[in-house]
Amino acid sequence: xxxxxxxxxxxxxxxxxxxxxxxxxxxxxxxxxxxxxxxxxxxxxxxxxxxxxxxxxxxxxxxxxxxxxxxxxxxxxxxxxxxxxxxxxxxxxxxxxxxxxxxxxxxxxxxxxxxxxxxxxxxxxxxxxxxxxxxxxxxxxxxxxxxxxxxxxxxxxxxxxxxxxxxxxxxxxxxxxxxxxxxxxxxxxxxxxxxxxxxxxxxxxxxxxxxxxxxxxxxxxxxxxxxxxxxxxxxxxxxxxxxxxxxxxxxxxx
Length: 254
Prior knowledge:
Strand order of the largest sheet: 4-5-6-7
Number of helices: 1
Number of strands: 19
Distance between the termini: 11 Å
Structural class: mainly beta
Radius of gyration: 17 Å
Strand content: 35-45%
Number of domains: 2
Order of helices and strands: HEEEEEEEEEEEEEEEEEEE
CATH topology of the largest domain: Neuraminidase
Helix content: under 10%
C-alpha cells in the first residue's frame, strides 16, 4: 500500500499500525506510530482520502513498539531505538481528545517486537488501577512473533528463540489464565504481519533462513489448522497489516 501524501508515512520503515480489530464496523483510518526515520511521530492516515494528519508526538523515541486500542484510548508499550536496549516505558493517547500522550506506569519487564526478547514471561495492564501484574508464562519463549486477539483469545504466532525460527503457535485464555498450543504454521517464520479477518487469522510474509517470505497462511479456528493461501506479490518482512472499512487486508512493506 502506498502513502504518497506524507513523507512521515512513506519513509517510516518500522512502524506500528492500529485498528479496532474486534469492532463489527472497522475503521477507515490507520494510526502509525514511531519508526526508524521518525521515532517520535504519530500520523493518522485516511485510506479513503489518502491524506495523512499529524497527531501529537510521543514522549519517547520508539521502534518495534506495541500498539493497543481500548475504546477511545491507544496505548503504546515498550520498544527500542537506535541500538538501545528495549524499554519499559508506556504512554496513552485519548483519540477523542488527541492533545498529548500521557505517560503511564512502566512495565515489569523491558520489551520490544511485541514480545519479551527471548523470555517467556507475560504481564497485563489494568487500565482502571493503572498497574502491571504477572500472568501465566507462555509455553515457549519467543521473540518477533505475531500477536492477534480473536474471539476473546490472544494468539502468539511463530517468532524465534535464541537458536531457531519457530513454527509453533499458542493461544491464551484470558479468563482461565492458561496458554494452550495450537497447530503449528506450515512454515516457520518471524517478523510476519498477523491480522484477523472474518474470524480467521492470517500470517503474512516474514523471514526464515536468510530469506524474505511472500507466503501467506490462514488459521481456520473451526478445524484448528493452518492452510496456505495466495502468496504476496512481493516478499515482505517486518511489514504491517490491517483490515479497513471495506474489509480488505492491507499490507505495507518495511
